[in-house]
Amino acid sequence: MKKILILSPHTDDGELGCGGSIARFVEEGIEVYYVALSACEKSVPEGYPPDILEREVKEATRVLGIDNSNLLLFEFEVREFPLLRQKILDTLIGIREDIHPDTIFTPSSFDTHQDHKVTREETLRAFKKCTILGYEQPWNNITFDTTAFIRLEERHIGKKIEALKCYESQKDRAYLNEEFVRSLARTRGVQINSKYAEAFEVIRWII
Prior knowledge:
Blueprint: E1 3-10, H1 13-27, E2 31-38, H2 52-64, E3 71-73, H3 85-99, E4 103-107, H4 114-126, E5 131-135, E6 148-152, H5 154-164, H6 178-191, E7 196-204
């Protein structure tokens, strides 16, 4: 992998699905781009400014080591992706032509959230000549194919947890709980005889 693109339907999906792997990639000198298709202004909790998630994703990706110039933010309406499918596809094609990534991380095929489902489907259309891995988000998944794993060290999980703590506006979400994040990484690690890991679905693999 020389140039990696993280496709996050909403701010924080990328960190939740593969934050530890992002930290490892950056550490290894791989160029990582992060795309958030929506900052979810309609879902911002009361008491926070409408652009709070945009601010938080900038801080979270900085913690993971992604260069600010490699963070791309878009304004697609949360929960409206099925109606915006063609515009999302056009956006992804534009990103492909600008960045030319070889490996894409996107929501898995088993993710039930409508925005995540559209993102995954349009990812395959726009990046069918690239390797595509689907990241895990158990709270959205009916099931999951653990067909690829990335070994992680304590420092990588530490970075993931630190990045997720940047989402102050989302602190009450159960899946941002440090114990949950660490236990899922430990579970995946046990499966491959490693202390920690993140698991992925192989959607497309090109060698």
